[in-house]
Amino acid sequence: MSPVPAAPADHAADLVPADEVAEIRDLTLDWFAAHARDLPWRADDRTPYGVLVSEVMLQQTPVVRVEPAWHAWMTRWPTPADLAAAAPADVLRAWDRLGYPRRALRLRECAQAVVERHGGELPTEEAELRALPGIGEYTAAAIRAFAFGLRSTVLDTNVRRVLARVAEGIALPAPTLTAAERRLAGAFVPEDDATAARWAAASMELGALVCTARSPRCDDCPVRGLCAWRAAGFPADVHAARRRPQAWAGTDRQVRGRIMALLRDALEPAPAHAVAAVWPDDEQRDRCLASLLADRLVEQVGDRYRLPH
After folding, report:
1. How many domains is the chain built from?
2. Range of 285's domain?
3. Which residues, 6+ apart, have CB-to-CB distance to 100 below 8 Å?
4. pLDDT tens, position by position, for the chain (309 residues)?
5. How far is the CA of 185 from the CAs of 82, 84, 121, 271, in angstroms?
6. Can you tell me whether residue 154 is helix, strand or coil?
7. Do 110 and 215 belong together in one domain?
8. What are phi and psi of 253, to 5 degrees?
9. For the chain, how many helices (H) and strands (E)?
């Protein structure tokens, strides 16, 4: 799939006139110049692989938890070739409690594909990036922008929220990304590579630090004077009934996490009775163990269990 092109301004003219689009961009870029966080995957010596690792780790995980894990990961496996040669069990132990451990194995599979198909260097073209294991539309666009400084439409939850409020006047975007959102986002992407990449980072940072989901700091927002949501009196979330609650306690995710924690800490394969002790509900625990085996996150050796080798 080719990169999502930036739509002409008239695609979003019914929401935001072209001159306001330009002003919103300029104000956001100026704000970013003064307030951008000093993150290692933004440093001048960053590598495309380091950006890839950060993007995978940051999926549904806050920066404060990712940063130390990213440093440790990059020290241990500084190149795709290093990660490609790593044992799956070591990769899962290094992932530790970042959550959704399948991401770790997919990242290793991605590194192996980069070595096999691209000589150990991440490609720049979106179609080639998206052909790699675990890389979808957002991650491919983010790598193009943040690793290579190329023009791309980067739409994560933070950018979607900023544009929903500023341009559409709604509290939060729809639960799933729409074609209309893509067109709107494309209208905001500057024409040149460098400014487009910086806009991607700036709009994301604005959503992460100021235009947050639950407690937006509207008085500190650089585009508050142009925000349609503010002008409309901060209407409530029209999609609230469609959103799934993010439960944790008592869920299969919690049970799977306990089994994985046991096996990460075990020096030898854990006996069945040790796995049984992590959760009192036999049916739920067995179901979760079966799903971990199916996902190849756990291996069974006789009547014992371990991380995959």
Report:
1. 2
2. 252-306
3. 59, 60
4. 344 434 333 445 467 899 999 999 999 999 999 999 999 999 999 999 999 999 999 998 999 999 999 999 999 999 999 999 999 999 999 999 998 999 999 999 999 999 999 999 999 999 999 999 999 999 999 999 999 999 999 999 999 999 999 999 999 999 999 999 999 999 999 999 999 999 999 999 999 999 999 999 999 999 999 999 999 999 999 888 887 777 788 999 999 999 999 999 999 999 999 999 999 999 999 999 999 999 999 999 999 999 999
5. 36, 35, 29, 52
6. coil
7. yes
8. -60, -40
9. 15, 3
pTM of the model: 0.90
Q: Using CA atoms, how far apart are residues 125 and 168, in angstroms rounded to an integer?
A: 31
Q: Using CA atoms, how far apart are residues 128 and 237, in angstroms rounded to an integer?
A: 37
Is the distance from CB of 195 to CB of 40 less than 8 angstroms?
no
What is the distance between the alpha carbons of residues 187 and 102, in angstroms, rounded to a whole number? Answer: 35
Do both 211 and 264 map to the same domain?
no
Q: Are residues 112 and 211 in the same domain?
A: yes
Domain boundary residue, one of 219, 244, 269 = 244
Decide if 59 contacts 51 (C-beta within 8 A). Answer: no
Residue 83 sits in the same domain as residue 205: yes
Tell me, yes or no, whether 103 and 136 share the same domain. Answer: yes
* Boundary of a domain, candidates 244, 263, 286: 244
One-letter amino acid at 149 equals G
State the catalytic residue, choosing from 20, 23, 55, 109: 55
Round to whole Å and give the CA distance between 38 and 29.
Answer: 16
CA distance 103 to 95: 9
One-letter identity of residue 234: F
55 is catalytic: yes
Half-sphere exposure for 114 (CA within 13 Å, toward CB)? 25
What does the alpha-carbon distance between residue 168 and residue 166 come to, in Å, rounded to a whole number? Answer: 6
Structure confidence at residue 241 (pLDDT): 82
